[in-house]
Amino acid sequence: MRTRASLILRTTIPALLPLFLVFSVFIFLRGHNEPGGGFSAGLVASAAFALMTVAFGPDAGRRALGLQPQVYLGAGILLSGASLLMPLAAGKPMGEGMWTTLSLLGREVKVGTPLAFDLGVLLVVVGTASGIVFALAEERD
Question: 31-55 pLDDT, tens per residue?
């Protein structure tokens, strides 16, 4: 693909891609009690892959994403669905939050089904948005 992206974009996006992804993780983890969460974090991550695609073409965007967009989409649907159905197995209403405590780096961290649901949403957004961006970029060629 012959790209007409600006020199500034082609120079900066390789350095900015990891920053976008770290910011996406921040938004994701912040989202339970503050504005943010899976959808917003997914949009930020998708924007990073879209910028990589605009700068260097769909092959570079796909390499940066790592897996096919459909894998992210399917994994997100499965994870969100499982987090909704897990409480049923415990005799609770569907979608009710269930929590457990993990020891991470010497600290006790509470994680639960809402976090899994948000992660599923993030994966669905990344898979959907990236798939659309890649399809449009390939069509342009």
Answer: 877 888 999 999 999 999 999 999 9
